[in-house]
Amino acid sequence: MKATVRAHPNIALVKYWGKRDEALILPHQSSLSLTLAPIHVTTTVEFGAPSDTVELHGHVARGSERDRVLRLLDAVRVQAGRDLGPAKVVSRGDFPMAAGLASSAAGFAALAVAGRAAAGLPADTRASSILARRGSGSACRSVQGGFCEWQRGERADGEDSYAVQRFDAGHWADLRMVVAILDRGEKEVKSRDGMKGTVETSPYYPAWVKDAEAEVPRARELIAKRDLEALGELCERNAWRMHATSLAADPPLCYLNASTLGLIQHLREQRKKGVPVWFTLDAGPNPVLLTDAAHEIAAEALARACGAVDVVRCVPGGDATLLSEHLF
Ligand code: PMV
């Protein structure tokens, strides 16, 4: 029983920041993202292996990294309702892991879809999104392509907390996301610790939750109209507010560095000159620039001029898909 799936990472336009349930990975607010191609992660899962083994990006996973993968497969075993035996997992990505792009999002989305297929379970985007969410929250938005909305849900068991596709990748084929890698270093505080500290200590956190929830339908409307300028402004506002609530945590959490601010400042000047380019920023120093096809080369050039050591140009990506070729 072997299956292989390719999934793309996603970039949140309205961020997820903070859990209401740490174990099930349930968010306080909804979020909305764009799936990014051509970068991807490919994962092969086989049940009935001699022992549980997990190989991620060329190394044998250990400790909590291994446990997260095996926990997700335990949930697949429960869904299958039978003993599937030990599992072998091999996963590989084709983009710089330190880019601050959540490789874990693509990885857990691929693992969830491949795990279900290897167990003989039928294709089911909702079930796969819920499974992927339990590996890493943002992964629930990488099961499908295009623009996906992770609805926070209300239930304590998390069965209503999953992502739904609002528009497919073809809806806005002209949109471009350019990842500006300013710093390749590992981030000092992982998202999961950063958001926990923010939820527990930031006096601004309740305001963040209320605001982000209200931005999701607004972003959806702007995507429907393909209004790049208004969506760019919304993305920047939402990223600033996520970072503002984190800066107000105790101890304070600052993911930006001097070159991040330099690039942001430069974007403002470029916009005054008529270049349509905006940024968003996850829990790290590397901004992702939002622009259109006609300006992606200009966006790359200005990222490099501001110190980017590498640049990854992305287009809207598609669904996680089953492949006939396996990694082992
Ligand atoms: O899913 P995680 O634990 O990698 O957290 C993702 C958090 C952000 O990337 C900052 C925002 C988001 O919605 O992707």
UniProtKB/TrEMBL annotation:
Pfam families: MDD_C (PF18376), MVD-like_N (PF22700). Residues 178-295 form the Mvd1 C-terminal domain. Keywords: ATP-binding, Lipid biosynthesis, Lipid metabolism, Lyase, Nucleotide-binding. GO terms for molecular function: ATP binding; diphosphomevalonate decarboxylase activity. InterPro entries: GHMP_kinase_C_sf (IPR036554), Mev_decarb (IPR005935), Mev_diP_decarb (IPR029765), MVD-like_N (IPR053859), Mvd1_C (IPR041431), Ribosomal_Su5_D2-typ_SF (IPR020568), Ribsml_uS5_D2-typ_fold_subgr (IPR014721). Its EC number is 4.1.1.33. The keyword Nucleotide-binding applies. One of its GO terms (biological process) is isopentenyl diphosphate biosynthetic process, mevalonate pathway. Residues 7-163 form the Diphosphomevalonate decarboxylase-like N-terminal domain. It comes from the Bacteria. Transmembrane segments: none annotated. The keyword Transit peptide does not apply. GO terms for cellular component: cytosol. NCBIfam families: mevDPdecarb. Belongs to the diphosphomevalonate decarboxylase family. This is diphosphomevalonate decarboxylase. The lineage of its organism: Bacteria, Pseudomonadati, Myxococcota, Myxococcia, Myxococcales. The gene is mvaD.
